[in-house]
Structures are given as C-alpha cells and as structure tokens.
Amino acid sequence: MFVEFNWVGALTDSPILMVLVACSVVTLGFALERVLYFRKRNGNADITLLQAMGAVRDDRVNEAIIHCETNGHPMGSVAAATIKNFLTAPKETEEVMQVALSQQKLLLERNTGMLGTMAAIAPLIGLLGTVWGIMRAFHAMGAAGAGAPSVVAAGVAEALVTTAAGLVIAVPAVMLYNHFNRRLNTMLTVAENHTRTLCVALREKDAAATAVAVAEVMQSAVDSNNNSNNAQPETAAAVAG
C-alpha cells in the first residue's frame, strides 16, 4: 500500500503534507542534536566524586577542582564552581551552587522545548490536513456531479495520510521529550547531591583544621603560663640571694 501510494503527487497536491514533512525534518534534527549533546555530557559523576573526596581529605583542594572540571557531567561544572567559591566566600556557597545548577539546566533544556512543540502541533496539523482532504473530496464530488469512489478518493487519501503523518511525528517526539526531561532531571539531582557531599567534606576539613589551631593556641597558652610560674620562684630566689 505504501509502495503503490503516489507520495510525490500527494506532496505536490497537499500543502499540509509538505508542512508535516518539514516538521519531521525539524524534529529529527533537534532530536539528533540533543542525543549527541547528552552523550557528550554523560560523564561518570560517581568516580569524580570519589576522586574529589580523596583529594579534599588529603588537603589537595586544587586537585579536587581539576577532577571536577575534567568531567563532562553537570556535576563537574557545578562542583568546581562551588568549591572555588567555598575557598573565598564560604557563606555564599548555597547561592553559587544554585546559580551553577540553573546554568546547567538551561544548557540541558536547550531545544527540548522544540520537541515538545512538535509533539503538540503535529497531530493538530494532521487534523487540519484531514479537514482539508475532506473538503477537497466534497469539492471534487460537487464539481463532478457524481458520488463515485474514484471522484473522492484523492481527497480521502490526503485526509488519512496527513492524519497518520501527524501521529507518526508526534509519538516519537513525545517519547524523546519525556526521555530528555527525565534524563536532565536525574543529572541535575546527581550534580546537586554530589556537590553537597563535597561541601560537607570541605566543612569537616575546615572544622578539623580550626579545632587543631585552637588546640595549638590553648597548648601554647598553657605552656606560656607554666613557664611564667616556673620563672617566678627562680626570680624570688635570686632576689633573696
């Protein structure tokens, strides 16, 4: 049936079908672009987290930043920006992380809206083609003055083909749109969770360093006090002698 159908003639006679072909090309182009982009951003966030955590615990924060920056996953960019800010302004870490997540969300969402648009309008364009084809069929019937099937066949065929074409475009577009949205939400959630884990490790390292510094200061104060107490009897003995 599809082989014997006059596709060239249908495209020539039906402007609606030509619009649907253009929609299919646009949908395919944006889908391929998103597939390639997500493949490029598909880094291993878990391994990067382990490497960065080890570097942070060994007090090699710059190395942790390098590990994050070399990962294509959104977690890499978000964690690198957050760690850099933590070193200079720890109180603004949450705001910087949210800004970085928003930037990554914009990159991941780019062109997915077009897939959603195509999924929504393709069936409507197909329905318009259906109405257009039925109108042509009745117009041909009125012009010929007869109701033979051959008179209305072209219009009915156009109506059915445009309806099917609209659904063929819309169904994959909906599936791809939902897939990409699910994937970007998962990637952003992983990025946020791993970044918060690194922030906790940085705070624990700073708290430990602060505790050591305080202990050293207190020990120095105790030693100084002991030295002063030991020096007072020696001074009194020297004066008495």
What does this entry look like structurally?
By secondary structure, the protein is mainly α. It has one domain (7-240). 88% of the residues lie in helices and 0% in strands. It is built from eight helices and no strands. It has helices at residues 7-13, 15-40, 45-57, 61-69, 74-88, 93-109, 112-144, 149-240. Helix 2 runs antiparallel to helix 7. The longest helix is centred in the C-terminal third of the chain and has 92 residues, at 149-240. It is rod-shaped. The model has no long low-confidence stretch (mean pLDDT 82).
> How many separate structural domains?
1
Task: Specify the biggest β-sheet.
Answer: none
The SSE string, one letter per element, is HHHHHHHH
Share of residues in helices: over 70%
Question: Overall mean pLDDT score?
Answer: 82
β-strand percent reads under 5%
How does the helix and strand content classify structurally?
Answer: mainly alpha
Shape summary: rod-shaped
SS elements, strand count: 0
Per DSSP, the total helix count is 8
Rg value: 35 Å
- Uncertain runs are none
The N- and C-terminal alpha carbons lie at a distance of 125 Å
Question: What would the keywords be for this entry?
Answer:
241 residues; single chain; mainly alpha
What would a concise description of this structure say?
By secondary structure, the protein is mostly helical.
Blueprint (SSEs and pairs):
Elements: H1 7-13, H2 15-40, H3 45-57, H4 61-69, H5 74-88, H6 93-109, H7 112-144, H8 149-240
Helix pairs in contact: 1-2, 2-7, 2-8, 3-4, 3-8, 4-5, 5-6, 5-8, 6-8, 7-8
